[in-house]
Amino acid sequence: MPMIDIQHISKWYGNFQVLTECSTSIEKGDVVVVCGPSGSGKSTLIKTVNALEPFQKGNIVVNGLSLNDPKINLAQFRSQVGMVFQHFELFPHMTVLENLTIAQIKVLKRTLADAEKKAIQYLERVGMLAHKHKFPGQLSGGQQQRIAIARGLCMDPSCMLFDEPTSALDPEMVGEVLDVMVQLANEGMTMMCVTHEMGFARKVSNRLIFMDEGKILEDCSTQEFFQNISARHERAQTFLEKIQAVH
């Protein structure tokens, strides 16, 4: 059974269809990059995977839990699916340590001692332990994003979703966040990542999904995507040419 199974997902905002019959499946340990032009539905698709965006047709099954199950507990479901956002989404009035323990205590019902132990383990892992008593506003963007990754990992998720995790960062800080993601990928974490970082896609992902206008136009191995450009959908070819011209 795949870790993430996306089955014929369609979604509308009023009369406007943002996703059309999107299907793909992600196996345990896969690192899948979702790319495409702005407004192609990438972020919407990734947000449907942990039920942050409802969909009107199709189904999503993560680690055996179906979003169409009327009895589903969404908080429990989301604890299985770590999510890292573009703008960190940390609580500004809480310290780093509090940001990492609150969901563990509320959702997973861990004791404060157990939650703090887990938080410290992951802060150390992302190189942020020295900052545990600071508030998010005292940290750089790259540091905040590493905290956000640690927060996701504290829930012991079965997979991690990243929605443009480096796009709000200064170029100098992108590397420190990508390094943490590379490390996670090397350790076998199942990851689905919306990103424009094609260097990261090439180096770390094993699959690449290309979207445009709410449809999945390409879903192939990373090697295939980059090495055999002439065989790709013409929209993907144009996208790659533009991206390569920038870099």
Automatic annotation (TrEMBL):
Its main location: membrane. One of its GO terms (molecular function) is ABC-type amino acid transporter activity. CDD domains: ABC_HisP_GlnQ (cd03262). GO terms for cellular component: plasma membrane. It comes from the Bacteria. SUPFAM superfamilies: P-loop containing nucleoside triphosphate hydrolases. InterPro entries: AAA+_ATPase, ABC_ATPase_HisP-typ, ABC_transporter-like_ATP-bd, ABC_transporter-like_CS, MetN_ABC_transporter-like, P-loop_NTPase. Pfam families: ABC_tran. It is a peripheral membrane protein. Keywords: Amino-acid transport, ATP-binding, Cell membrane, Membrane, Nucleotide-binding, Transport. Residues 4-238 form the ABC transporter domain. It is found in: Cell inner membrane. Belongs to the ABC transporter superfamily. This is L-glutamate ABC transporter ATP-binding protein /L-aspartate ABC transporter ATP-binding protein.
